[in-house]
Structure formats: structure tokens, C-alpha cells
Amino acid sequence: MNKKLYLFLSGLLFPLLVFAQEAEAEEAGRTLDEAINSVFQPITTAIETVVFVPVTIGEFTIPFVLIWLIVGAIFFTIYMRFVNFTAFKHALDVVRGKYDDPDDEGEVSHFQALTAALSGTVGVGNIAGVAIAMSLGGPGATFWMILAGIFGMSSKFVECSLGVMYRNVNEDGSVSGGPMYYLEKGFKEKGESWGTVGKVLAVLFAIACIGGSFGGGNMVQINQATQQFIDVTGGEASFFDGKGWIFGVIMAGIVAVIIIGGIKSIAKVTDKVVPFMVGIYILAALIVLGYHIGDIPEAFGLIFSGAFNAEAMYGGLVGVLIQGFRRAAFSNEAGIGSASIAHSAVKTDEPISEGVVALLEPFIDTVVICTMTALVIIITNYGGYGAEFAFENGEALGGITLTSSAFESVISWFPFILSIAVILFALSTMISWSYYGLKAWTYLFGETKAAEVTYKVIFCAFVIIGSAMSLGAVFAFGDAMIFAMCFPNVFGLYFLIPKVREAFDNYMDRIKSGAIPRTK
């Protein structure tokens, strides 16, 4: 217990120590950003070397993590007999509350669990990431992005079904679930030696999840939101230019108020923010597409022809395929395991019911939102700059600037709305990842109030740090940790999926026979 307390206090003091070192860094002729980056760079490089180890396919190199996620998704789809299609209609019925029972164990409804998980994936990647894929892979990348999203639906189904199946319901009614629990418990059912393997996988996942929550799920998000806020309030002339920490303090306060109440409080925010921001974004996309309605057939033609007959400038077929698969995997996080932590808190006695709800997540995130973004970019001729210009100047024009230009070509005031959307996307992502990190933290250090408060304080402190600094190495570390989560998770899914299929067959038989009645 003393060791745990020491770790809590050390973690609590770390953000303060970072600021305390600023004067020392300046005396040495380096900025604080440079000093921290110099410390994290070798660590980040080592992690990235393992997580993003390259595999050569012809003339191209592709991170093995991408192959790991896509192959897993295809296997899960086939093994579950294309559950992403066969259970789609039932998923809509469940998320609409037609099978809700308020007396079931859990903390949130099916809809709230879905929005909480979506808030962790729907974000800047849907806006900026798709533009980068277009710049590097051309219109054809959209086809492979959609295909990867469809297969990813099966990964989400499997991991989120297991999340509910093996969750812990605590004495106070709160729930703890996710890969940490189904890896440990599921493997333990296979025998003592298997239990040891499961425990190791669970601990590795939890460590990666905590690192990812502080980096990719927090500091990266607030840093992007801060930059957008400064831009929309005047750029270099903004009062906040050079004072991003003030915005960070405000956002940290908002995050603290939301996450202090746990998943119930988070869900009450996400079930309003997520539909609102997604609705606004899709509405704007529909306006742009409506303005260019006559060009829509040609846009789809470019997507399909580009998918199989890619021009040399886009790296050929393999290059386009890689860009599409990469964007889908990095956007919807299917196979990462993070979403199952949020879905585990659902009010249900039927684990499969939440699994089918979860499969809607990659569909909304990738098949709908990412595709809408891609269509807008293509149909406006890359925001009026032309596909060739966008490709040749991918680094300069790519990302959010390209997407903003595409929308602005029809809706002149959209860049302002886009800035607000980015801030909301960042906020929703942070609060969801705070919950993911918290559950991983308490899995390692115990379900105590001290552990919970310590993690939340550290998380909010990193919001301020992330808003004030440009820590490239730290951000890369956070992203690498997020994708490191997929290795123990997908590995475990291969061994636990037979139980999911057995439970799914039983569940659907009872749905068809009426043994599980509708409540609405």
C-alpha cells in the first residue's frame, strides 16, 4: 500500500515539477518544450520502433500494427458470419431503447454508452485525417477506408460483447470493464497457466491505456483545440497567443466538472454533444454536396476508379489501399479495445446486446462521417486547389486546412464553425479518454477513492501542460501507446471469440422466439 501511495503522490507532483523546471531549462539555453522533448524523444523512438515496426509489401512499407488490426477485423467478420450486416437492424432497435430495462445492472443506457464511446473516436481525425489520406492516396483511398470501417464493425462487436461479459459491478453500483478484465478472467477460465498469460496481457494493456490517455487522449487533443481557439480569436493578434495555458486552465476546469461524476456524468454530456456536433458537421456536408449535386456521380466514379486504377502519383494500388486502411484504423480504433471500457458500463444483462450496439460505432465514424468528408473534398476539387496541387503540397495544404478550404468554397463562414467543432471534438475525446485511463489506473492500483482522485488530478494537470506546449515527442508517445493497446487486445480476442459466437447464437435465437421481449 505504501508503494501505491508513493506512486500516487509522485504522479500528482509530476506536472508541477515540469513547470518548476522551466527556469532551469531557460538557463541552459533551451525552452521547456525542447527540454521535455529531449527527454521523451529516445523513449518515444523506442516505443514507436516496436509498435510501428514496418513490413515491406512490394515497394511499400506498412506498419505491422495496421496489418494486425485489419487481418483481425477480417477474421472476426468471417468467424462471426458477417455480424456487421446480419445484426445491423437489430442494433438500431437496441440503441433506440426498444430492449432497455432500467432495472438491469449498469450505469448508462445503450445510447449513452454508444455516444460516450463515439466521443472518443469521432474527432479531428475525421476532419484532418481524411484530408491527409486524400492528399497522399487520392480519391481511391476513400473506398478502402469504407471497406476497413465495415470490417472494423466486427472487431468492435467482439471486444464490446466481452467487455460486458466479464465486467465487474462494484458494491456502489459503478462498473469496471474492458480488455483488462476480459483478458484476465477469460484466460483464467482456460486454466492456471493460461490465467498467467491473461494477467500479463491485461497489465500490458492497462499500462498502454494510461499512457495513451495522457498523450493521445489528452495533450494532443487540447493542443489542437488551443491552436484552433487562438486562430479563431485573431491568430497572432489574439490575446491568447503565447498564453495558451489560460485556455488550458478553462478547459481543465470544464473537464474536471464533467469527469468528477464518473461515466454517468460523462454520458450526460456526450449524449448531447456528440449528436449535436456530428449533426452540424453532416448538415454542412450535405449543403456542400447539394450545391454540387450534379457532380456526385462523377465523385463516386473517381472513388471507385481510383481504388483499383490508382495513378502512379498516388503510389499505385497498394499505396492507395494502405492510405485508406490506415485512416480507417486510426479513426475508429476498432481492435484497440478502448471503446469496450465505455460500453461495459451499459445497463443490460445481455452482453451481446451491447456488442451489436458497438458495431454501429465504426459505421458512424468511418463509413458515414469520414466518407462525407472525403466526398466534400473530392466534389469541390480539393477546396478549389485541385487534386494535383493538394498532392504535391500535401504537407502544406493537407489536414484541416484542406478540409476547411473545401467547405469554405461553398459556405464562406464554415471555418468558424469548424473551429468550434474541433474544440468540441477535442473536449469530448478528452473526457472519454479520461474514463478509459481511469479504469486502467484503478485496475492496476485498486478501486479506491485515492487512486481515482489522483488520476483525475493528474489528467487535468496534463490538460494545462498540453495547451501551453508543443511537445512533439510526447504527443507521438501518446499515439504510439494507444496503438500498443491493440496487440494484447486482438491477441486475446482470437482465443475468446468462440464464447462470443456461442453467446450470439443463443441471444439471436431468443430474440427471434420472443424470449427477450421488447420493452417499448
UniProtKB/TrEMBL annotation:
GO terms for cellular component: plasma membrane. It is a multi-pass membrane protein. The keyword Transmembrane helix applies. Residues 1-20 form the signal peptide. It is found in: Cell membrane. Its main location: membrane. This is Alanine glycine permease. Belongs to the alanine or glycine:cation symporter (AGCS) (TC 2.A.25) family. The chain crosses the membrane at residues 60-80, 200-222, 242-261, 273-293, 299-322, 363-383, 413-436, 457-475, 481-497. The keyword Membrane applies.
